[in-house]
Amino acid sequence: MLFASCGAPQLEPVDAGTPDAGRVTLTRDAGVDAGIDAGQPTIDAGVRDAGPNHEPQVNPVILQNRTTAYAGQIVELALGATDEDGDRLTFAWSGPGTFFENGTPSAQRWFSDERAAPTQLLLTASVTDNRSAPITRQLTINITVPRFTDVFSTLSTPVLQGGQCVGCHGSMGDYQIAGTRNVAWSQLVAADHHRGTACINAGVPKLVVASDRQRSLLYRKMNSTQPAACGDGMPAMSQVSPASPLQHIVMVGSWIAAGALND
Ligand code: HEC
Asked: Residue 255's closest CA among 133, 146, 95, 156?
């Protein structure tokens, strides 16, 4: 869970000589990109027109670019909101899985946590002008178990297209990512790895053990939790830990946990 906020209203100097100095109108697109432009002027409550606060106008639904996603697949979310007083709006997004800001706090990219069975997840966004009570909106997303087709296309995507494995695993690492899904599956599931008995004795006997992520070298290396006897995290020379992007780990982990089917 990640709390996204653009913070409390900020004080900016208002030139008292400017007519209408206290009145700042935020004009915004009420559509997908209806969030706050970080460059917009903000004003402190002390110079705002006297009178009652108006609560933000928040769109009735959170926009989502898909209603069904496999575990680890990215869903884009956006909630349009405006505030006629020009108050800076704070957005908070919550629910299972991982949110990350998509340019503005009103828009997020999200993926679920690991799931071994289909489920529905409820996500919540709340918006406040920091003067009135937060206004909340919710949505549900149908989460499915990733198919091997999804795993294969992620692992076998060329580096130039954002893939992280085939650049080396066409040519090095003792393990070639096959050109077809069926061959790739049979070279992973219940297949021996090349890290030897030390790695097997450390509890990781195969590249993939169906329904057992912890004994699956593929998962352990992507997650950077491989025993020392099993070599490096993957992609090799990744500067971060875990070595692979979290959404890929969620995808592979969910697929293995659900039985590592060839689907
Ligand atoms: C920079 C090159 C490089 C990249 C990129 C890379 N690998 Fe590797 N990989 C290696 C090397 C070298 C080894 C052998 C040494 C080791 O296991 O640490 C290896 C070993 C492996 C093994 C163990 C194979 C076996 O049979 O023992 C797996 C599984 C693996 N990599 C998966 C991946 C995955 C999945 C990705 C993409 C997320 C990836 N690698 C990206 C270089 C790379």
From this structure: 146
Burial of 160 (0-12, 13-18, 19+ CB in 10 A): exposed
What is the distance between the alpha carbons of residues 167 and 88, in angstroms, rounded to a whole number?
45
CB-based contacts of 122, cutoff 8 Å, min separation 6: 95, 138, 139, 140
Residue 75 has pLDDT above 80, yes or no: yes
Domain count along the chain:
2
Which structure tokens are listed for 5?
A: 């906020």
CA of 166 to the centre of ligand 1 (A): 9
In this structure, the answer to whether residues 105 and 2 fall within a common structural domain is: yes
| Ligand 1 surroundings by CB, under 6 angstroms | 155, 164-165, 167-169, 172-175, 193-195, 207, 217-218, 221-222, 231-232, 234-237, 244
| Domain limit, last residue, from 119, 144, 169 | 144
The answer to whether residue 263 sits within a structural domain is no
What's the one-letter identity of residue 79?
L
Coarse DSSP helix, strand, coil percentages of the chain, rounded to the nearest 5 percent? 20, 20, 60
110: CA distance to ligand 1 center in Å?
A: 27
Q: What's residue 169's pLDDT? A: 85
Quote the domain boundaries for residue 173: 148-257
The model's pLDDT over 91-147, given as tens digits with 9 standing for 90+, comes to 999 999 999 999 999 999 999 999 999 999 999 999 999 999 999 999 999 999 999
Last residue of a domain, one of 144, 170, 185: 144
